[in-house]
Amino acid sequence: FNFAFEYFRNGGFGRCAFLVVSDDQEWVKDNLLSNKTNSDVFLINGPERNPHKDLALLSLCNHSIFDYGSFGLWGAVYSGGEVVTSNSYGQAHQFIVYKRFHFFDPQPDEELITLGRYEKLNYLS
Description:
Elements: H1 2-10, E1 18-20, H2 25-33, E2 41-43, H3 51-59, E3 64-66, H4 70-79, E4 83-86, E5 94-98, E6 111-114
Parallel strand pairs: 1-2, 3-4
Antiparallel strand pairs: 4-5, 5-6
Helix pairs in contact: 3-4
């Protein structure tokens, strides 16, 4: 996720706020919110769990980052904008950036970016 955050922070998108919706709040706190460079990352859903409100909020976002699962997928579909997601769950730090999200064949405006642990991102134009 941190690589995807950097893609949006440094890719000409202006100031960013990352709204995180997850059913594993402890993981988010331990892995995303504990990183001091992630002061722009916010855990949105609380213990009361309102998935309909969470999905409505995701639909209002300009862009999306998600890893797996239908909830994140639908949030990305409804939001529009660019979507960063994992390209292969067997290969660490490999992502695909969709300029617009779709369910069908790859489009000419997609590009695979492979990220090493200490590599700089190559941003898409």
